[in-house]
Amino acid sequence: MIQVFENLYVGTNTDCQQVTAGFATIHACKEPCHRQAVGYKGNLKASHPSYLMHLHGDRHLYLNMVDMDQELSPQYIHPIMERSMLFIERHIHDKKVLVHCNWGISRSPSIALLYMARKKALGNATYDMARNDFNAIYAAYTPGRGISGYMERYWANLLAI
């Protein structure tokens, strides 16, 4: 788990299992977190109320988020990113916030990067600028093609949510 901003941490599945009560956590992975939290095997029907995300209590947001080679569909990923920004904003002032995915290299750092760019803690004129600034803080950031394609294409929209 690495602190990338005041009260904001990026991590892996292992880090998720070690957080304490002082944390609020975004679980940015379908497997195993979203699947276990919602209680399904295989794939969940798109009509399910927790298809994209599931809030458990006040401190756990589970995202049905996968890393794909193809660009992610804005109809699915945009609500996930919007809710993630709201979740971080809600908790970051009085708790530590961990954003994790399986390996901590693509999905979770992309969410943290977006939050930091929105707060102008990174250059944010373009996704490439923000990415370069973020890589200086979090060298492991290696977004998949689907995430990076989505961030590049919808950067202005993402800053506005």
From TrEMBL:
Protein's name according to its UniProt entry: Dual specificity phosphatase catalytic domain-containing protein
Boundaries of every Dual specificity phosphatase catalytic domain copy: 38-122
Superkingdom of the organism of origin: Bacteria
Entries under Pfam families matching the protein: DSPc (PF00782)
InterPro entries reported in the protein's UniProt record: Dual-sp_phosphatase_cat-dom, Prot-tyrosine_phosphatase-like, Tyr_Pase_AS
